[in-house]
Design brief:
Blueprint: H1 13-20, H2 24-31, H3 39-52, H4 58-65, E1 70-75, H5 80-97, E2 100-105, H6 113-123, E3 128-131, H7 139-147, E4 152-157, E5 168-171, H8 173-186, E6 192-195, H9 202-217, E7 226-228, H10 234-245, E8 253-256, H11 259-271, E9 281-283, H12 289-293, E10 300-302, H13 305-320, E11 328-331, E12 334-336
Parallel strand pairs: 1-2, 1-3, 3-4, 4-5, 5-11, 6-7, 6-8, 8-9
Antiparallel strand pairs: 10-12
Helix pairs in contact: 1-2, 1-3, 2-3, 5-13, 6-7, 8-9, 10-11
C-alpha cells in the first residue's frame, strides 16, 4: 500500500479512510479500539495511519463520541525517583493506546482531598485515574470514586487485594523485605536494625512485617533487633544511623525501608568513620538511582516502578473499555546483592 502524500500537510481521517479503502466510521472504530472490528480491517487501517503519520486529535475524538481520552495520575509521594518512574510507565501505556496523561500532585491528608480528586476528574474530563500510595490507601477517596462510577486503579502494598472495589497492582513488600533480611541472616548477622518509612504508607508496615518474619524464621530473638521510626527520606537515614552507631552494642547490619534512607545511613557511617560493609552492612529497598550512585552501591530489592505503572495504566484502560477479565496483578521485588553487604565479622 503506497501513496504519495504532501509532508507539509497534516493527514486527516478522510485520508486514512481513502488509503485503507474503508469508511471514516471504520477508521474511527479502529482508532478508538472498539470491539468487533475484523483483524484484517484493523491491520489495513493501522498501516494507513502509520504511512500517513496520522495523529488523531484527542479533543475532536472526545467531542465526537462524548468520550474522554485523558487519564490522570493522582499522587502524594515525596520520593521524586518513584514519581518519575511512575510517570514514565504511565506515559508508555498511554502512548500505546492513544491516550493523554494528566499528572496531578495532591496532599493526601488534607480535609478536602475527596473534593480535590473529584474536581480534578471533572475539570480535566478524565476517563479514569491511577492512584499510588498513600492516596490509593485512603478509604474515603476509594469509596467516592466507586460511588461516582469513575474508573480507577490502585497501586497497593501487599500480596492480595484488600477488596474488589477496583483493579489493583499489588507489590509484595513483605516478601521482599523477608528476602533481604534472610540474606543478611544467612551471612551470619544476628543484631540487625530496621529503619522504617512514613507511617502513613502501608508499605512501611508490610516491610517491617517481612523483616520480623525473617527473624522468626531464623529463630532470632526480636529483642535483639533495633526498629526505629522515620520517613522515606535521606535525612531520616542519617538521623537513625547516628542513633544506632552511638549504641554500646550496635547492630552489624541496617535494613532500610527504601534506598534514600539507606543512602542516608551510609552517609552517617562515612561521617563516623564506620566502614561499609566491613563494619556495618547496609541494605535498601526499591533499586532507585540512589542505590547505584552511592559507594559502595547498595544491596536492595528491585522494584520495577515503571513497569508497575505501565501495567496499572493498562488495567485502567481495559476497565474503561469494559474489559474486566484481569483486575489484579502482583509484583514481587527481587533481591539485588551489591557491595554494601557482606558476611558478619
Amino acid at each position: 500500500m503506497t501513496q504519495a502524500f504532501n509532508a507539509l500537510k497534516s493527514a486527516t481521517i478522510n485520508d486514512v479512510a481513502r488509503l485503507a479503502g474503508v469508511s471514516i466510521k471504520t477508521v474511527s472504530r479502529v482508532i478508538n479500539r472498539e470491539p468487533n472490528v475484523r483483524e484484517e480491517t484493523t491491520a489495513k487501517v493501522m498501516a494507513a495511519v502509520q504511512e500517513l503519520d496520522y495523529q488523531p486529535n484527542q479533543a475532536a475524538r472526545s467531542l465526537a463520541g462524548f468520550k474522554s481520552f485523558n487519564i490522570g495520575y493522582l499522587y502524594d509521594n515525596p520520593n521524586a525517583y518513584y514519581v518519575i518512574d511512575m510517570q514514565r510507565g504511565l506515559l508508555t501505556a498511554c502512548r500505546e493506546h492513544g491516550y493523554e496523561l494528566l499528572i496531578h500532585p495532591c496532599d493526601a491528608f488534607t480535609d478536602n482531598i475527596v473534593e480535590e480528586v473529584l474536581a480534578t476528574v471533572k475539570k480535566a474530563r478524565l476517563a479514569g485515574v491511577v492512584l499510588t500510595p498513600p492516596l490509593s490507601e485512603i478509604p474515603a477517596v476509594v469509596q467516592c470514586l466507586q460511588e461516582k462510577q469513575i474508573p480507577f486503579v490502585r497501586v497497593l502494598s501487599g500480596s492480595q487485594a484488600p477488596d474488589n472495589l477496583s483493579p489493583c497492582v499489588m507489590v509484595d513488600d513483605r516478601g521482599a523485605a523477608f528476602e533481604i533480611t534472610h540474606h543478611l541472616l544467612a551471612m551470619g548477622h544476628r543484631r540487625l536494625a530496621f529503619f522504617c518509612g512514613d507511617t502513613e504508607h502501608h508499605s512501611t508496615a508490610e516491610r517491617q512485617a517481612g523483616f520480623e518474619a525473617a527473624l522468626a524464621k531464623h529463630r532470632v530473638d526480636a529483642s535483639q533487633a533495633t526498629i526505629l521510626p522515620g520517613s522515606y527520606a535521606f535525612d531520616s537515614g542519617v538521623k537513625n544511623a547516628r542513633q544506632v552507631l552511638a549504641l554500646a552494642e550496635r547492630p552489624s547490619a541496617i535494613i532500610a525501608a527504601n534506598d534514600e534512607i539507606a543512602a542516608g545511613a551510609l552517609f552517617a557511617c562515612r561521617l563516623e568513620g564506620v566502614r561499609v560493609p566491613e563494619d556495618m552492612a547496609i541494605a535498601g529497598f526499591e533499586d532507585s538511582p540512589f542505590s547505584r550512585q552511592t559507594w559502595p552501591p547498595l544491596t536492595t530489592a528491585q522494584q520495577p516502578n515503571a513497569e508497575i505503572a505501565r501495567q496499572a495504566a493498562t488495567l485502567l484502560l481495559a476497565d474503561i473499555r469494559g474489559d474486566k477479565r484481569n483486575n489484579q496483578l502482583i509484583f514481587s521485588p527481587k533481591l539485588l546483592e551489591r557491595d554494601s553487604t557482606s558476611a558478619a565479622r
